[in-house]
Amino acid sequence: MKTLHIVPHDVDLSFISKRLIYFAVSGFLILASIGLVLTKGLNFGIDFKGGILVEVRTDGPADIGAMRDQLSTLGLGEISLQEFGLPTDVLIRIQRQEGDGDAQNQAVALVQQTLGEGVEYRRTEFVGPKVSQELLQDGILAVGLAMAAILVYIWFRFEWQFGIGAIIALIHDIILTIGIFALLGLEFNLSTVAAVLTIAGYSINDTVVVFDRVREKLRKYKSMELPELLNFAINRTLSRTVMTSVTTLIALSALFFLGGEVIRDFSFAMIWGVVVGTYSSICIAVPVLLYLGLDERARGNMDGSNEDGPQSQADRP
Amino acid sequence: MVNFPTWKKVLVALICFIGLAYAVPNFVDEDLLTGVPDGLPNKQVNLGLDLRGGSHLLIEVEVQKVIDEYLESLVDGARAELREARIRYRALGAQTESMGVNIIRPEDHDRALTILRDLDLEATVSQSGDRFTVELPEPIMAARRSAAVQQSIEIIRRRIDETGVREPTIQQQGQNRIILQMPGVEDPQRVKDLIGKTANLSFQMVDVDNQLNEALAGRVPPGSEILPMAANARGPGQPDVMLVRKKVDVSGQNLVDSQPSFDGRTNQPVVTFRFDTAGARRFGEVSTNNVGRPFAIVLDGEIISAPVIQEPILGGTGQISGRFSVQETADLALLLRAGALPAPISFLEERTVGPGMGADAVAAGEIASVVGLVAVLIFMAIAYGRFGLYADVALLMNMILILGALSVLQATLTLPGIAGIVLTIGMAVDANVLIFERIREETRAGRTPISAIDAGYSRAFTTIIDANVTTLIAAILLYAFGSGPVRGFAVTLSIGIVTSMFTAIMVTRLFVVTWLRRKRPDSLPV
Q1: pLDDT per residue over B271-303, tens digit each?
Q2: What is the domain range of residue B317?
Q3: Interior angle at CA B280, CA B276 and CA B281, nearest 5
Q4: pTM for the whole thing?
């Protein structure tokens, strides 16, 4: 049986020497992301902003204009209607009502009275101000703690330089993911936080694989210059990096195109995250190691004190 | 590594078999499972409300009201007792967690202290100068709050059960919140109306000795209050408020039963009720003393009926009439039967998904999973040939194990949870990719097939562990801080990570080693 080699086994691309280009590109993208978030802002969903979301299906193609006219007489403030997936489906968003959750509850009842029995209510959600604030706090906390925990784990398993490199790449990925949400105006909600955390997991996963190889080479080739060694490690794992990205992207594409309207933004965030995460592992996380003094002393430390059972045994076939 | 002892092979096969056994119920008709005894696999995956349709409500119990009411009663008690003892005081009132009063004359201090101590033996009284503070120790306060939440859950459960909603789950969240999940409930408005009412019922005399006009002008007589009349309790020409005695003669706590019914003469829908012995006796006394006078039936601060007492009511039964609809009497009777909430509640969050939406989500999720799975299976076979097929078997096994684990744990599968599974499909093969790439590399480095496979598995092992543990950390934190559907995502992702490590390492190795033993190949088809 013939097998597929997307990346030739003797690939020798020079990543490390082009690092300044990557840094410049990433720096620009990070600044652009921050700028977009600050100027354009994020399109927070009701999870974080509070408010009401009603998805209805009508018998025939929906008359969004008429619906808007009906609802705008209710005095509920800002209301947006959009077609959602099908011409019969309408997604109605209503701004958070003054007052607590009960105020949202009453508004929902009002909307349902107005639209009447003739439509199918596919989804009705409201989030009061108290809960939306907590959800936002919890989301930020979860992302922060995840990063801290990952940093500690990498620190524990590798040298501290690797931990810093991994976290820089991670922050890079998270900022770029938030940036694309600002750029495209995608809804930022609880699922997005889930996507961001998964991207964090994936990105770290990718980074760890390359780092593992760097560590192995550091131990094996004591005299090799660091830039050359890092480049070598990237190239040796490049085939795996590409293969895994491809399989993950295949699965995510299925989700994006076939998984339905509700998780489309979520799937998109993940696809973007896989691309960015793969890039950052190679072009950010590893080159950064050069600047963190991963010197002879660190190599010496790794030689003796680090535990890594099966690995070192395999070195003596 | 190439040595794969028989006990390990048996263990791998056993785990796969158990996973398969627990996954099987998902592919048979639900009715068949009812006959399967516990202990054997008889559970299907528990679908979340976003997939099966239903309503999720987050409710907050305003427990501070319980404390407020308690403090108010302390203030009333203190006022009465201090007056009776002719002790002069000022600044008597309740704060958020305590009650305070200044006793003006120093010679009264000792007597005041005794009086305040006797108000509630559980409370503590402290003195600073002429300021006396009565408060409950925090543990007792906390116990009262928690009791209020527990009682609310009980009352809500009773009310829901009466509505005929099937399999609701009601659980406490945090200190003063309740999560209510009702599968299959498409329109929770009626349920919300029903459980949102405190349903505090009281029977109070209407104050006929004082003028309503005077009270409306701001001179409300002490011991009375102005209460609004419910729209359907008001007869033609009747005012929309009434002056009512504050004293509660009989309260809803004394009710033992309540039913919707029809008035014998007018055929109007009414609610009949029955008091317990103590309630019947008190109601008997009050009605005997007040024949010819009107009394008010007050529900949550609103007069729902104000009939005139025609004769002493001694049997302990009565009826509430008004211009009610049949539905209204049914609801009112239900509320009175189930009892009053100890504190008002409010709705913080609602997520309701219609059954059509849920079914569509399941269908879309299934299609996406199957297409994603098949595409990855094909890709792996093309990329790694024979070994790719082994990885495919491992991937399929992984799916079965995830399904089995979800069924055993009765974890809730949500739409993001399906996304987690699809993502796992892509990421699960990563371990195999790592191993196979390593084997390729070692082969090129001139190793024999056995040695290359040995090195491939062992060297990739630590990498796989490191890479997966980091993802697992993210997933666990997502579970800890996520809510609802997002938690479902964390669950499937975590399960997927663990099962994929097992299948990618152990299951593929089982195949590779068996093949290696049988064929003794000179070169590897990787």
Answers
A1: 998 988 888 888 888 889 888 888 888 988 888
A2: 199-327
A3: 120
A4: 0.81
